Amino acid sequence: MRVRLQWKWMLLASVLFILFLLIQAYFFYTLKTSWTLSSLLAFCFVMPFLFLLVRSLFKPIVTMTRKARELVSGRLEPGTTFHADDELEDLSKTIAEISTQLRKKMDEVAREKDYHQAILGGMAEGLLLVDGRGRILLVNEALQRLLAISSKVTDKTTLEIIRNVELVEAIQGALHEATDKAFEISLPSTRGRTFEVNVVGIPSSSDEMDQREPKRKGVIAVFHDITRLKDLERIRQDFVANVSHELRTPLTTIKGYVETLLEGAWKEEISFQFLQVIKRHSDRLAKIVEDLLTLSKIESPGFQLKIEEIALRELIADAIDFVKEGAEKKRISIITRDASSSLAVQGDRTYLEQVLINLLENGIKYTPEGGKIEIVTSQKNEQDIQCSIQDTGIGIPEEDLSRIFERFYRVEKGRSQEQGGTGLGLSIVKHIVQAHGGKAWAESQLGKGSTFYFTLPKYSDSMKKESIKDP
Ligand code: ADP
Fold it and tell me: Which residues on neighbouring strands pair with residue 186, listed in sequence order?
């Protein structure tokens, strides 16, 4: 049965009071003690019962206070009730309900936080969140990585973390003038990486808007790393400029000589020399176009190598045969040395022959008369074969060594052109070797000679078996 709390209190208090009166009367009338002493003795007898009464009444309140504290600290199991058959039971049920609702909300918030963290963590773009005072609220992992900053930046100003005035001004503009902005920045702290930054304000809710300054309650800045795009754009522009420049020189020469011939010079003896110059320059033009076509073919998406087993010894002999005449003219000897005569690689014969021819032709071009070229092949490791072509030529300065595989890069432009070079030979070598899964590099000592190395995948017996099964 449910008893109202005040009745309970009154009933028990009345029982105690009657008990008190009875004891007091007993002492006063039966034992003849004074009125004061009787009251005092009666009080002493009733005291423990009073204590027990108060305790039993306060116990549910104490329990509820404890539960409320557990609720605040999140330790209360949702739906926990504690019994009392009075109004306190209602309170206990309300607390239990609150705890269940609170736990649901907390679970929802935790789930949403997990989603947000997963989204922010998975973003390739860097994200910066700033509050209405211009202080940092959040920096996602991508931005920490891109700008090499720590995660402990909360509550700092943007300028303290990212030293870029344009970014700070854009954030201030988005906060105070509600102007969103997109722009490019290059940060020295990121070793010149370029970012496209989109700064967007977070609008304040309508009631906030009336009283609040600034107009936005925060700003989101998204950083896209466009360094690669910029590099590609620069490479494309450089390439177009280089090709135009390379083609213009022989074309201007040809045009000049043809015009002179047309003006009547063809009648003179000198016309033969003119035609020879025209022939030399048109050969050069043809070579540039041919090299460009080879490069574009290797780089095209559908490019396929015709992979087969190639005995290195044969390949080298064919390439030497091709350049023999030029070497003999300069009395340059070409010798080969292999660690194992049976070394075989897997590759495309036509393209690999071109690699060797380009390197041998360079060796001949840049080695003075009477020099020597040595070709060494060896097994680099289980999977790769290494080939080196060493000459006793003019060598390459240290600072140019890392750039000679770039298109149109030449150490001495004049000398290369004199020798009929296009500046594309080594670029073709690098691309062909890379298409085979190998690597090409060079070492050199100025005035003493250069060595060009490349690796290729070794032909293995398992491949042989596979190709037999293949058809
Ligand atoms: P090129 O047609 O000018 O020879 P390459 O791409 O083959 O173009 O070579 C790029 C540059 O590297 C050359 O212009 C030359 O300066 C340098 N180079 C290449 N091979 C050698 C070598 N064996 N000895 C010295 N310099 C070399």
Answer: 194
Unique residue bearing structure tokens 């035609």: 275
- The answer to whether the beta carbons of residues 170 and 187 sit under 8 Å apart is no
Cα-Cα-Cα-Cα dihedral sign, residues 205, 206, 209, 210: negative
Centre of ligand 1 to C-alpha 423, Å, is: 7
Structure tokens at 69: 């504290």
Say how far apart CA 159 and CA 167 lie, in whole Å: 8
Residue with tokens 């997963």: 118
394 lines ligand 1 (CB under 6 A): yes
- What's the gap in Å between 64 CA and the centre of ligand 1? 88
Of the ranges 50-54, 94-98, 394-398, 420-424, the best mean pLDDT one = 394-398
In short, whether 410's Cβ falls inside 6 Å of ligand 1 is yes
Cα(336)–Cα(389) distance, rounded to whole angstroms?
A: 9
Q: Which atom of ligand 1 is nearest to the CA of 389?
A: 23
What are the residue ranges of helices labelled H in 155-226?
A: 158-161, 165-176, 206-211
Cα gap 140→129, rounded to integer Å: 9
Residue 465: its pLDDT value, please? 44
For residue 450, how far is its CA from the centre of ligand 1 (angstroms)?
10
Tokens of 162: 């990212």
Burial of 315: CB neighbours in 10 Å, binned 0-12, 13-18, 19+: buried
Nearest-CA neighbor of 433 among 324, 333, 359? 359
d(CA 301, CA 304): 9
DSSP letters spanning 79-112 = T-----SSHHHHHHHHHHHHHHHHHHHHHHHHHH
Confidence band, pLDDT 50/70/90 cuts, at residue 451: very high
Tell me what pLDDT residue 424 has: 93
The residue contributing the CA closest to ligand 1 atom 14 is: 410
Q: What is the spatial distance between Cα 18 and Cα 42, in angstroms, rounded to a whole number? A: 11
Instruction: Give me the torsion for CA of 185, 190, 194, 197, rounded to 10°.
Output: -50
pTM of the predicted structure, to 2 decimals: 0.63
Give per-residue pLDDT as tens, 408-417: 888 887 767 7
Give the model confidence (pLDDT) of 327-349 as tens digits: 999 999 999 987 666 788 999 99
Residue that has been written with the tokens 């920045």 in this structure: 185
What is the C-alpha separation between 375 and 391, in angstroms, rounded? 9
